[in-house]
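Human:
If only I could read backbone structure tokens as easily as an amino acid sequence. I am handing you a single protein, as its sequence and its fold in token form. I hope you can help me see how the letters and the tokens relate. Thank you; the sequence and its tokens follow:
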Amino acid sequence: MKWVFAGIVIAAAVLTGCTKSSEEGGRAGNDTFRIAVPALATDIKQGELQTAQLTLERGAGFKQRVKLEVKAPAGIQVEPSSATIEPGDKGEVQLKITAAKDAPIGECKIQVKGTPDKGEPTETEIKITVSAK
């Protein structure tokens, strides 16, 4: 019975994926976009560096440039803190996340905002869990 339950949990994880997406930005219909970030918290130790990937998911009609702004809490540094994704770009941005040696231990959130040339912006967050080194 334990194996059946474990199989169901694994299948559910595979079907739901490992990312979460923001609300839609842009305009109505298929002229929209979302920002996908890791669904689970990124674990990082004080003084260490981790990476996380952001992906711009475009609706079929969305052909705009999107400016990304990333804001981290005290004790966490993120590079790049901003990026522009052009209409023909793949839409992936690798973030370098560094926890200061004295970063507060526990969970915190990095805010990500995507603003198109025209239409509504959208926001999401990346959860970070900082642990002692």
In short: Residues 1-17 have pLDDT under 50 and may be disordered. The CA atoms of residues 48 and 99 lie 6 Å apart. The two ends are 39 Å apart (CA to CA). The longest strand covers residues 106-116.
